[in-house]
């Protein structure tokens, strides 16, 4: 018997490397927001040191169950006060390096979870 994975309903992260992420085969070199609900758009933050609360407010408006924050090539944790917009809406956040966030996004989206990946490239 041949087993095949279920097709994702929304975008799939199909590759990544230093300075880029591919979504549905299209390569991006800017930071991205990718949603299991179909959204794939540039994120207005190019680097970790540019983050502020407004970036997490933008993610909260998408109303996911969980945000996967890919902080770049190494794990960097956001300041707790930046996360208030997520926590006030009972939205979870997991911080990991961007490559791990890409892999985790595909896994959770494949399970049908309402997840958003915010990826610093």
Outline the fold blueprint.
Blueprint: E1 13-17, E2 20-23, E3 26-28, E4 32-35, E5 40-42, H1 53-60, E6 66-70, H2 84-87, E7 92-96, H3 98-110, E8 115-119
Parallel strand pairs: 6-7, 6-8
Antiparallel strand pairs: 1-2, 2-3, 4-5, 4-8
Descriptive overview:
- By secondary structure, the protein is an alpha/beta fold.
- The protein has one domain: MTH938-like (Hypothetical Protein Mth938, Chain: A), CATH 3.40.1230.10.
- Helix content is 21%, strand content 28%.
- The chain is built from 3 helices and 8 strands; from the N terminus they run βββββαβαβαβ.
- Strands 5-4-8-6-7 form a 5-stranded mixed β-sheet, covered by helices on one side.
- Helix 2 (84-87) links the parallel strand 6 and strand 7 (92-96).
- The longest helix is centred in the last third of the chain and has 13 residues, at 98-110.
- The chain starts with 12 loop residues before the first strand and ends with a strand.
Number of helices: 3
The CATH topology is what?
Answer: Hypothetical Protein Mth938, Chain: A
Count of domains: 1
Question: What integer value in Å does the Rg equal?
Answer: 14 Å
The CATH homologous superfamily is named MTH938-like
- The best one-word shape is globular
How far the N terminus sits from the C terminus, by CA atoms, comes to 39 Å
Averaging pLDDT over every residue, what do you get? 93
- Class computed from helices, strands and strand pairing: alpha/beta
Unreliable spans: 1-5
CATH class: Alpha Beta
- CATH architectural arrangement: 3-Layer(aba) Sandwich
In what order do the strands lie side by side in the largest sheet?
5-4-8-6-7
The H-and-E topology, N to C, reads as EEEEEHEHEHE
